[in-house]
Structures are given as structure tokens and as C-alpha cells.
Amino acid sequence: MSETSTQREPSSVDTGTAPIVHPSSRSPMNRVLTTVVRSREIAIALALLLVIAATTVTTPSFLFSSNSWRDLLLTPAILILLAVGEAVVVITRNVDLSVGSTLAITAYLTGRLFVDQPGIPIVVVFLAGIVVGGALGLVNGLLVALGRVPALVITLGTLYIYRGLVLTWAGSNRINASDMPDGFLGLGTKTILSIPVLTIIAVVVLAVVGYFLYTSRSGRDMYAIGSDPEAAKLYGLKVRQRVVGAFVLSGALAGLSGVLYAARYGTISSGAGVGIELQAVGAVVIGGVAIFGGSGTVWGAAIGAVLLVTINRALPILGIQDFWQQAVVGALILGAIVLDRVLSARRSRKLIEARDAS
Amino acid sequence: MTMTRSYPAHAHPLWRRVLMTREVAVIALLVVVVLWASATIPNFSGPLTFPFLILDSAPILLIALPMTLVIVTGEIDLSVASVVGLSSVLVGMLHQDGMSIPLAGLIALVVGVLCGLLNGFLVAYVGLPSLAVTIGTLALYRGVAVGLLGTTAVTDFPFKWTNLIQQGFAGGRLPFVLVPIVVLAVVFAALLHFTSFGRGLFDIGLNAEAAHFSGVNVARTKLTVFVLAGAVSAFAGVYYTLRYGSARGDNATGLELQVIAAVLLGGVSIFGGRGALHGVLGGVLLIAVISSALRLENVTVNVINIIIGLLLVLSVMSTSLLGWASKMRRGAGVRGDHARPQKRRVTSSPLQ
Asked: Up-side HSE of residue B42: CA atoms within 13 Å toward CB?
């Protein structure tokens, strides 16, 4: 579960005897190649390609018609954002179940702002969504970090509370496409160089968060915290600060996806995004992020999100009633975690054999 | 190893140990809320409040019993509401095909047991985290339920059965569903608090490895509690179907959150190893009474959801706040008798 963080620090502690960790005898190119080929992300990407190929063979219009290419890229955008935030939280050995409710709050906020403040700049609306989402995430993070209560319980509570807030605020009101300016709604379907704007936003966020997690000090801290919170604390890492940071990021991304939800669907009621938190967690798990933290990447989570959404769209085309979508999602999650278990068991057996042999 | 220090058997006298507990606090709060509601809300003390309170909260009351056992072992089962939905759909479809209600219910129960077996097998024998497994089976079981019936609903249940559910002893004041609730509550309380199986559950929750070495069959015990959760959830599904006279794929969606909220409110530790069934029953009834009282006051469901969420967060926070306060009182160096063991999740050691 924790190989990423244990490999991080080459052992410089041992001064007298032979080094504990031997440098790899393989060439750097060879190592990069093996890592890439064996990576979980490639496996899911292949599964995704397989799904797309199988569906396209049955129904060529799945890929080769004017709108389908756009839809293929556009539909997963919102779930990618949620999955990226969720992945960061899960990497720190926490979970955020409140993202669906946060999405609903900022989606309704977006509509409300356009109704109550006609002519409000779109940038301000985006900022408002991100800030409000981040604030809701901050509440989660502070409760988890200060209360020392599992995030599952806290975010289960805030799932109720945030959803209750938006239900009270919105009541049975519904915000329709006619209430929002065309320039904003256009974002939902506009494409640049045949790539939808929403997808570009999601990919940019993904790249920034991915780069941050992979290279920055605090990003690496998050892996260390997820691998072993106690050890991370003893090592002097700012555990609380990082965990709160992860929740703020997850909340802010959920807030952003609420704004995008409004742009994409045009109709917002208080029921927006009910149950989407399970899809986000599902995407993360399928994407190879260990549910007990410390390993996995946001790339994997994002590909997991695309795979989930694409399978859901492919099922009706393959002749399976779309009522079965959720069952497929469940089977995929189970398959992914069983696979993880088998692979990690094999890896640890190999490590033990290697140690015994030496 | 020899013990060099002797400890008194108990730090506090018996009455303090019995009365100054989290469970009693929840029950006291329940009593206060009932008294307050009876005094201030006109219709609360009427003859209809209690039967409807029981009829509405019966599924949560039922499922909270095995859920307590699951959480005491340090695991969690998020799939219970999906099992309720699946069992409901099965009863509906089998009834549609002409099967009698008891037989259909029995088959639903068997399927519930199978659902629990799958959860328990993956958690106990494959060694997967229950959180991940049951998020997966939550989607899987719900997906099968929705897949089987689609958006249609079966509603033509025989009046004999749907009417029976609404009836009760003492002119309908004590609904018949109280019988299974009371029987199961007694059985589960006995199982958890008065059998070696129950002691084993607490042992596993405190330290699974130590439990293993003291002779508890950890895997089989975990499998058993998940099977119990599946079976009781399926039974609740049969009840749910007849109570509302409708079998739909999305029946009882989100019920798992209410069950877990009630169990944790009742003082069961999410880390496992701590909890008592009377506290859980108090927790379920507390939520039910608050919802029922507020509904009579015409407060909307939304506000009730906010209150349930706040109660859940406050109740879990209160444990750590109290612990923090008592630590401050005792001084930092002294370790309290009740200090909660630190994070026990044993990460896989290279030796395994």
C-alpha cells in the first residue's frame, strides 16, 4: 500500500555498512518502461479503449458522428473534477462523501446569482462557486482534523447538512435555462478545436493537481500521511494542515463542478448531484487509489471517471437496458478492489522471496 | 512477565459506571425530548403518534441491530439499504408471478443472506476493507434491484397483508411489527452482551490480531455479522414493501446513512470495540421522535435532515471533546483509564 512513499527517501541513514536499498541494476529507460507498462493507469486506459472499441464496432455512430465525439469528451468532465478532489482526500486516508451536496449548493448558487444579479460577470460566478465549495470543504476538514473522528462519519453528517441547506434554500424552486445568460450556458456545449470547454477545464485542473501531488512537498506529504498517519506525525509532517488542505481542495473542486453542472444541464433543482459521491468514490477506487490511502494517482482516478461514464453510455448501445448501469458500476468497483488485493499479495510475496533469497 | 502494579477492578462505583455512560445520556435526552414534545406539541400525545412512529422507523430499528454488531467489530456495511431495495423488488416480482407473500418473503430472505455472504466473504476471507467492498455492493445490489424492475412498480399486494401491517395490538396502538422488533432486539442484545460470540465481537473491534491469538475465529465471526446484516435487511425489505404497498427498485435509497447515524448517535464507536444495544435503540428512537415531533410542527423534511446531520456530527465530536477535556483535567502526562487506543489499523507488515 505504501510503496510510493517508502521509495521516496533513498536511505542515507546507514553510514557504516552496506546500503539497505540497492540502486536498481536496470537502466533508467528500462525502469521507466516497466513502470509505465505495469501501471494501473495504463490498464484502466486499455479497458476504456476496449469499451469504446467494442461499442463502436456494434454501433459506429458511438464514435463517428458529429455529436458523439463531443459527448464522449464532454459527459465525464464533471465526474473527473469530483474524482480528482476525492482522490486527493482518499490518498490522505480519508473520504469525502459530501461532494454531491456541495455540488448541489454551488449549482443552485450559480443559478441564484444569475437570477438575482442580472449582468453579473461569469468569472465572478465561477469564483463564488469555488470559494463557497472550498469553505464547505474547510468545515469538513476542520471537523475531521480537530475532532479526530473518521472522515466517513463527518462527511456523512455534512452530506445530510449541506443537502438539507440546499433543500431549505431552494425548496421546490427550479432554475431554468432561460434564467441564465446564453454566454454562460454556451460554455456547457462550446468546443475549442473540437474539444469541449468543460473538458478543457477538467483536464487543466487534473494536470495542475496531478503535478502538485507528484512534485510539491505538501503533495508528497499527503502520500506519507495516507501511508501511515502516526509515522507522518512522528516525522514532523503537518498532518492536520495537509488533511484540511485536501478537504478544501475537494470542496473547491466540487464547487467548481457545481458551476459547470449549471452550465451543462441548464436546469437546477435541489436534487442536483444526489448520489454522485458514490460515483466519485467508485471512480477513485477503480482508478487504483487505495481506499486506505498512501497510493494511487489522480490520473488513475480521472481515467476511472471516464471509464464509469463511458460504460454507462455504452450499455444501452450494447443492448443492455440502462437500468443495469448501477449494477455494472458496483461490479466494476468490486472487481477493481479484488484485483488490487491479488496484485499487492503477489507483490509482497515476491518481496519476501527476494529478501529470503539474499 | 510478572505484573508489578495492581489495578483496582473498577475505577468508579457500580452506579456511576452504569449511569454515567453515553448510552444513558442518549436515553435521557430521548426522555427529555418526549416530555418536551408532549408538553408543547398539541398532537404529539395523541393516540396516532406512537403507532406511526414505530411503523415509520421499523426498518431503521431492525437494521440498526445487526449494524451495531458490524460496527462493533470495526467494520461497516453501507449496502443494507440496497438489500432492502433488492428484497422489496423480489417480493414484488415473485408476487406478480403468483407466489404467496410468505414464500416470496422467504426467498427474499435467502437472497439477503446471500448478499451478506458476499460482503462477509470479501471482507473476512479475501481481506478487503469493508468500506470499499460495501460501497461496491451498495451499487451492485441496488443496480440489480433497479435492473430487474426498471422504473415500474408492483403495487397490487393483497389487502390482507398490507392491512395487517397497519394493524396492531390494543386497538392498533401497538403495531404488530413490534413483535419482530422486540424479539430481534432481545436476541441481538443477548448475542452481543451475554455470549462469548458477543465478547469476540468487541475483541475483534479492539484488536483483531489479539482476538485471533486468544482463540476467536475472526474471519468466521465477521462473516456471521455480515450475514446477519443481510438477513435482517432483507426482512426489513419485505416489511417496507407491505408497509407502503409498493415494490420499487429505488425503495429505501439512502436508508443506510440514517441507520449508521442512529447507531453512532447511540454511542457505538466507529473504531469498533465499544457500544451497547440499549444506546442504539435510544439513538434510533431519538431521531424518530425528533422527526415525528418536528413534522407535527410542520417543519419540513429538509430541516429534519439538517438536524439529523448536526446530531450525528455533534455526537461523534462529543466523544473526542470529552476525551480532550478529561485529558486537560488529568494533565498531559497521565494516561486515562478510558484512553481510547490509538489508531489500530495494522498496516500489512512485511512478515505477515
From this structure: 2
